[in-house]
Design a protein that fits this description.
Blueprint: E1 17-20, E2 23-28, E3 42-48, E4 54-59, E5 68-71, E6 79-80, H1 85-89, E7 93-101, E8 104-111, E9 115-119, E10 125-130, E11 145-147, E12 154-158, E13 165-170, E14 176-182, E15 196-202, E16 207-212, E17 217-224, E18 227-238, H2 240-243, E19 253-255, E20 261-265, E21 270-274, E22 280-285, H3 286-292, H4 297-307, E23 318-322, E24 339-340
Antiparallel strand pairs: 1-2, 2-23, 3-4, 4-5, 5-6, 7-8, 8-9, 9-10, 11-12, 12-13, 13-14, 15-16, 16-17, 17-18, 19-20, 20-21, 21-22, 23-24
Length: 344
């Protein structure tokens, strides 16, 4: 299932629809409304569990002490997951990933304020690593996202707002393996990054994908499930030819059961739909669409520039798949119940 997350100040009279060809989406303001008292200052991580429930991690305004919300699969019934309390929520919650381990699902949180946490789905803390974990203390450190290969006990942390390193941890106890990859670099250097904002395991090729944001690309790496000592460059998917020289891809979310498609949100607001080869087949221009309908684009733009997400005081937003106009001689239909989601 897909859902697009962002912020609005209210529903518009006309439907808000974006995208190309067979991949067009309509904004639904009635979905993914926060529970009473929610202050979604910056929304970041979004995942779905095995039952298709939706989880969001967000930065609050200090008066709302929560940071984790769960919705039902249809985007209704938002409720706080309070198991982690302020130990989980203090700071700047950012990346969120979900993993199934021995039949049970867990959430992995990367907090920009130098905090890494593994929790159950209700936020109860399994382990937490605060501050320096043994890496070079002279390097900046503001972690953004985890990659969680399902066939390995090792997990890979992208320090996207800090050193641009990739640090390898043991998922069982949060122990750093003393292995580091990456570092800062430009587009001429593979395996070096300029804001390695997102890390993810790609089930379409069983490689780790790094969203190298300021270099406008996805860099792919081979790893060894049995050892932390392999992180070898495989190939690059450059997003500039189709998305433009200023594109800033924040993350990558794959849907292998949907013909291998994926989606990627850009820092400036558009969300691209990619085919199995990561070629752009549609773009939902979220910020532009909301601006046309006179939503709070000043706040949205300010938040995008700050954090890649345009949040509102009480609402995220969901975009549902729309059937395209029928082509001459064609009987193909696109289910309107299909939805699309982006993880920033």
């Amino acid at each position: 299932m897909f859902s697009l997350v962002s912020v609005v100040s209210g529903a518009a009279d006309a439907p808000i629809i974006g995208g190309w060809g067979d991949f067009r989406y309509q904004y639904d303001p009635t979905k993914m409304v926060g529970p009473p008292g929610a202050s979604l200052t910056n929304c970041h991580g979004l995942v779905t569990d095995k039952d298709k429930n939706i989880y969001l991690t967000y930065q609050n305004d200090g008066t709302d002490k929560n940071c984790l919300i769960k919705w039902q699969p249809d985007g209704t019934g938002g409720e706080y997951m309070t198991g982690g309390g302020t130990a989980l929520c203090d700071g700047t919650p950012h990346g969120l990933k979900i993993a199934t381990e021995d039949g049970k699902q867990y959430l992995y949180h990367a907090n920009n304020n130098q905090k890494l946490t593994k929790t159950t789905l209700d936020g109860t803390i399994v382990w937490q690593v605060n501050g320096n974990f043994g890496q070079d203390p002279k390097l900046p450190y503001r972690p953004t996202w985890f990659a969680l290969p399902p066939d390995s006990k090792y997990i890979y942390l992208c320090d996207g707002y800090g050193s641009n390193n990739v640090y390898v941890f043991d998922r069982t106890d949060g122990h750093w393996t003393n292995v580091t990859y990456g570092g800062k670099g430009d587009r001429t250097q593979h395996g070096k990054f300029a804001t390695n904002h997102g890390c993810t395991w790609d089930p379409r090729n069983s490689k780790i994908a790094v969203s190298d944001r300021a270099n406008s690309r996805f860099e792919y790496f081979d790893y060894d499930p049995a050892s932390p000592n392999k992180f070898e460059y495989s190939h690059t998917d450059d997003q500039r030819p189709t998305m433009g020289s200023g594109t800033l891809p924040c993350n990558l979310r794959m849907y292998p059961d949907q013909d291998g498609r994926a989606i990627s949100p850009d820092l400036a607001g558009p969300v691209s739909v990619l085919d199995k080869d990561n070629k752009v087949i549609s773009v939902v221009a979220v910020s532009d669409l909301l601006a046309e309908q006179k939503h709070d684009v000043r706040r949205a733009a300010r938040t995008h520039a700050r954090s890649t997400r345009a949040p509102h005081a009480d609402r995220c937003h969901r975009v549902s798949r729309r059937s395209p106009p029928p082509r001459p001689g064609s009987t193909r239909t696109t289910p309107s119940s299909s939805t699309m989601a982006t993880w920033l």
